[in-house]
Amino acid sequence: MSSSIRFVSPSLFFLLWIFFVHLAGIYLFTSGFLLTRLALTNVTACNDGSCTLPPTHKRAIVLIIDSLRFDFIAPAPYIPSENNAEYSVHHHLTLTLPSLLTDAHPRNSFIFNSYPDPPTVTLQRIKGLTTGSLPTFVDIGSSFGGSEIEEDSIIGQVGMNGKEAAFIGDDTWMNVFPNAFHVNMTWPYDSFNVEDLHTVDNGVITHLFPLLESGNTPDLIIGHFLGVDHVGHRVGPYHHSMHSKLLQMNATLTRVVDSLSDDTLLVVLGDHGMDRAGDHGGDGQLETSAGVWIYSKSIPLCDDEKISNKIPSQLLPYTTFPDADSPHRYIQQIDLVPTLSLLLGLPIPFGNLGTVIPELFWRQSNPPQNPTEESWGWGSIRKTAVKDEDRSRASSLIRALRLNALQIHTYLDTYRLSSSGAELDDAWLTLESAWNGTHVDEELALVNLWDYTRLALSSCRSIWAQFNPLLMVLGLVLFSASLLSTYSVYSGIGKVTSSHLDPATQTTVVWEDWLIARMWQALRGLAAGSTLGFLASLTYETQLKTFGKGMDSLDCILFMAPFVSCVMVGKLSLSKILGLLPPMSNILKTLPFVLHAISFFSNSFTFWEDRIIAFLLPSSLIPHVFIGLRAPTARLRRRILGFTGLLVVCIRLMAVSTVCREEQHPYCHVTFYSSLSSSSALESTYTSTVVPPSASSSSAPTFAVIGAPLMAILLPIILSRCLKQSKSDQGLATVWFNWIMTPSLFCGSVYWLIEYVETAGLVDESEWGAVLRFCRTFLSRAALGWSVVVGGVVWWKHPLCISIETSEGQRQIKILGFANAYGAPYMLFWTIPFSAVWATTQLTGQIVLGLSAIALMSYLEIIDGIRDVLMVEEAFTSNRLSDILPSGDDFALGATQNNHSPNVKFYEITPVILLAMHLFFRTGHQSTIPSIQWKSSFLLTSTLTYPWAGTFIINTLGPIWVILTGVGLVGVWLKGPRFSSVPSPKETQKDSQQSPPVVSADDQIQLSILLCSLCVSMYLMTILLTTSLSASILRRHLMVWKVFAPRWILGTVVVLVGDVSLLMVYVGAWQVRRVVERTFSRMMGQALT
């Protein structure tokens, strides 16, 4: 063995290289796939007022009640009836002022069910509510750090027309409109402390009424309440806290109405809805049902109470709220933008795609005088109005629709002339035909104008995806190249280590030398590919602009460099690839992997991936069962089959914990959470069987409240017992479990117990809230700091789990823990990320985490038993019985050490990766945005503070991370150091022609770790490749953004998490190898002296 273990090695270079290739492929595919939309900075302006209507109101108050769902303000029969399980006394018929005033003053008050375009997150809805534009899928990435809006907006129009705007509430508005509001009338409040239900609302109330009651009321007041949203996130809509908050909003609105001046328009709306658990972000029906109430105190909004009988039905769509008895009037949320603009006498924002609300323009009006233009344009709209001034009330609506339609047509014309205009090509003929249909008499124009604006909206929704097929293809090519090159290295190393002679040179081959040669080829490929990519971008610049839609030099280099590098590393022709394919028996062993990979081409299988994983994981153990049945000894059979049974039991117990996607209704029953806040037994049953809640909104079930702290105490004992079997519960292990792991796990459990007490309303939060929040913060910091910081330092200094006993008077050393000298320290290393994930995971998830740890330990015992069986069979087959007998010259257990290359098979890693995915789904996650447990962002602080809010990332991806980090255990478990005596030159020459070279123990560990890493990389990249292919092929599928794109995003993130985990595996194994080599080399020197 060498005197020192180098940190920098060919294995590290390969892991870093494949990480770079993955990043390049992901960048290219993402650039081509994720939806984008060009934001035009044009502004609607007209000095003569021809692009707007005379104002009906001088000022407006827009009050946004975050997450105000339609049924929170709607009366019966537009909400579930009282005998329906969906009815709740906590949020139905509580905020009653809108419905009461609508009944009393039908010409002055209107309630609408509005559709906010997903993603239903506040930042994107602010953009839609102010610009009238559509969000894209990639917009959700900026939900927590929005940039200033550069498009034309109603806020910008207020300022450009000499008016003043004031703002109070959610500070998200300051990110997108930093300079739009009057400096002395702006009061932003922190928006991300979901545990604070009142500060923002009280702040809005404090500053709102002085503005209303002053003599200098601004022209536009925006107030953004957050309490309803925070109650939803914290305890859900079925909690008594929601009832109290809605009563507060009702009282506030009553006072606002009393304070309104006659010329002020009041608009109350929800930026989005909330699901049954109180969350939002997706496109579920409850999330996209937001309430809108428009009220004018003195000036009627329409001239006819029976307006629905006068306006054509096509202009007045209706929809039925889930479980309601009757349909209600339905609008697009962005329809508020042109409506408010024209009611206030402002131009419609340039990029608006909304349509004016017909009811609010069905009235007689005083038309403008002296039209000057005859052609179709702003002036001709005014002339048409003059000519028709004596016609019916429809004239005002037609004028509004003409302004609206012309604005949209101008916008689409401008967009089509932009660099992204080709996106509209497929729909342009249809749009132009509809536009031409608006040049008719006004009796026909009413419907045609409406149809045109709605056609423009639907067309943009369906095609506004700036897909770049070329970049997507390049990304897929890189995914495939990285997969093939990884497989070629995996197969090549196996071939090198299984043969003692190089066929070409007839000399011995060391696998590290082989890998070094491949890495040099990779470097040459990177250099050559970068050069070729740059030259190609210069040579084919015109073609790239035409076919690549703006593909630049960076894209060319990022493709060619890793691609040529992969080719240089692989150097595989089709025949060689086929020659490296495993035999049919091994292919059958990988059948669960194959089934998992191809399932993503079906939306149904993607919906039910959590159930499929629960089936594939036990199925992947079948090859191990067959090997166990043919074990040569009863002890081995009992060991393999017994631990297999224990592993299956753990898998099934983990599967008890479920959260449900919306698409799984009604065949999925939620058990991860317990809806303790329901108002009735019937309601509780319904919400617990159908709802896919997130951690931010529901309480833990009773079994988790009891089981999580118990698991925190028992799990370290169980892990210690696992080490005791190999007598490796020595050294650091004697104090690790009792003084490092147990306190960390217990603090993490108590944190969530206190959170449960608060959420379930078991204490008076007004009295104990601050104290409990302090205790929770202290416990969370203690849990993470003790395990990660203290535990990490202690482990790095003294990782070994051995005990050395020296017999007096005899030169004999007894080493306890020798047989697992590598595996035991690495297990302690693995418990560090495990403890960190435990602290961020809720109570039910902590039980599941504990079961996964037991499952992983069981699998390690299975793998070790399988390898013993295979080694014995190989020894008998090759007539080398000495391989399984102890050697007098070695410090080793002969039956547990294989002199030949480590035999890490791909099918041995498959169950571990399936276990990682199983753990992800069973800790309260799904491949959907609403399943993200946002509350874990407040683990370390009571407010959203970066970077500490990143704990939600650990909560989400930690289950996968911790199991993938545990893959290293497969390579090091129950392996001890091996020191062979150095043969003489004659013996070396003789043996080199008769038997394979002995692989040292350190080389075995390093090679085992590398092979495990290669298997993980191949599995995860295959999943990413198939999810990317399915998303590409089905990119125009109806379910692409609901099903295939989120699963692709998960596959992308998992690959990156896997690459980081493998680097952690390398670092942890390197430290173990270094300390073991240093310790045992010193011991050998002392023994020889």
From TrEMBL:
Keywords: Endoplasmic reticulum, Glycoprotein, GPI-anchor biosynthesis, Membrane, Transferase, Transmembrane, Transmembrane helix. GO terms for cellular component: endoplasmic reticulum membrane. Pathway: Glycolipid biosynthesis; glycosylphosphatidylinositol-anchor biosynthesis. The chain crosses the membrane at residues 12-35, 470-490, 522-540, 552-574, 641-659, 703-723, 735-754, 778-796, 817-837, 843-862, 952-974, 1005-1027, 1048-1069. Its main location: endoplasmic reticulum. GO terms for biological process: GPI anchor biosynthetic process. InterPro entries: Alkaline_phosphatase_core_sf, Phosphodiest/P_Trfase, PIG-O_N, PIGO/GPI13. One of its GO terms (molecular function) is mannose-ethanolamine phosphotransferase activity. It is a multi-pass membrane protein. It is found in: Endoplasmic reticulum membrane. Belongs to the PIGG/PIGN/PIGO family. PIGO subfamily. This is GPI ethanolamine phosphate transferase 3.
